[in-house]
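Recap slide: Mitochondrial import inner membrane translocase subunit Tim21, sequence and predicted structure.
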Amino acid sequence: VVLIGLGVTGGLLYVVLQELFSSSSPNEVYSKAFNEARLHPEVIGVFGEPIKCFGETSRRGRRQQVSHGTMHTESKENPETGKLEFRYILVEVDTYPRRTIVIVDNR
């Protein structure tokens, strides 16, 4: 029973750590896309500096920040290198004048 418990605990720890620290985890993709967007000159011109980025508001309403833009991204693993590559990174400006800033477009 103890060995089974240790095995299950070890498996859960592996899955959690892999999800949090993997280069293909959602958090890592989110961070890389944000870093590319915040260095783009047009994004800096629209939003100014420093630029902060937050995840989506939950149903609990925990995030009360005002939204000025939305970033959309898609990435996929390159079969040759094994690394994630962005297919696109787009920033939608929600304030007037509304527009879309293209950071990366490899579609």
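The chain is about 35% helix and 25% strand.
The radius of gyration is 18 Å.
(End of recap.)
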